[in-house]
Write a structure and sequence with these properties.
This protein is an all-alpha fold. Helix content is 75%, strand content 0%. It has one domain. It has three helices and no strands. This is Phospholipase_D-nuclease N-terminal.
């Protein structure tokens, strides 16, 4: 048997597993479920987990932008107007 070829095959199968499980764990996903997916579909699982993470990060970013916009709107509407602005001049004076 050719040991380097077998070792290369094991490494080529093992690296996507590690990457998939690590990424799933870092983003709060069930690592053991992703391990099973990665064992069956090693390279496809990397693409799937990256798509899931990208979608989740986009949703978080949109939620953060909406929160910032709401805070800005609340600050703008709650500001007191400076004295003398917004009042029409009195015609009787």
């Amino acid at each position: 048997m050719n040991v380097p070829i077998i070792a290369g095959g094991v490494v080529a199968w093992f690296l996507p597993l590690v990457f998939t499980v690590y990424t799933a764990h870092m983003y709060g996903r069930s690592w053991w479920k992703w391990l099973l997916v990665a064992m069956v579909l090693p390279y496809i699982s990397v693409a799937i987990i990256m798509a899931v993470v990208w979608k989740e990060s986009q949703q978080r970013e949109q939620a953060e932008e909406a929160k910032i916009a709401a805070e800005r709107a609340a600050r703008y509407t709650s500001r007191p107007e400076p004295a003398g602005s917004g009042e029409a001049p009195n015609a009787s004076e």
